[in-house]
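Follow-up to my earlier ticket, as requested here are the two runs.
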Amino acid sequence: MTRVWFLPLLLVVVGSAVATALFLDGSPGTAAALLLVFVLLAGVNSPLIFPRSIGALEARRRSAADGRPVVYWRPGCPYCMRLRVRLGRATRQAHWVNIWRDPAGAAAVRAVNDGNETVPTVVVAGQSHTNPDPEWVRDHLFPSA
């Protein structure tokens, strides 16, 4: 649990320290702007921006029932963030599995990526795709459309 919050907390602490130094040097406007940038970066890298993760076994069960993709991800991954942002509101249509919280999810990713925990790994109809194009994933979010 602490590992998923490490980067966001580090960004807030470093941003606060830099902003404090700038404020004390007489640049309150620059300090406020820089602090805002660091807080936004922390928010983007936090687990809050992703839908609630479920376990790998539950994700596979749900995917078998509704045909939606399973997305294996981890906090702090820029490629996962790219996928999340590019999917927009459609993100909630996929089943998200945080491999740092679910050992079965991490094992599933290692099994299809030569032992590496390469994310995002998207599984559609039993076929895994490592770091796929977000538009391709969007096309598979609504299999009946």
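Run two:
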Amino acid sequence: MSDTPLIPQKSPIKVAVEAGKTYHWCACGASAKQPFCDGSHKGSAFTPLAYTADTTGDKWFCACKHSGTKPLCDGTHKRL
């Protein structure tokens, strides 16, 4: 795996999150459980990013892996 993450898709993934629950966002782009980690990064320089929801509701997680507000989408996928 290179130092550049894979791009599973160029649009965010909507996830219903629960306040206080921690989610592990895939940083490498290789996970089959996007946008979350399934351990595919093992043996690479990537590590998942822990995200603890502050409120219950829908969040848009980055799937292009290039957001400036990781793990949430900031629209960067529109420029890729």
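The only thing I checked on run two: The CA atoms of residues 16 and 57 lie 5 Å apart. Let me know what else you need.
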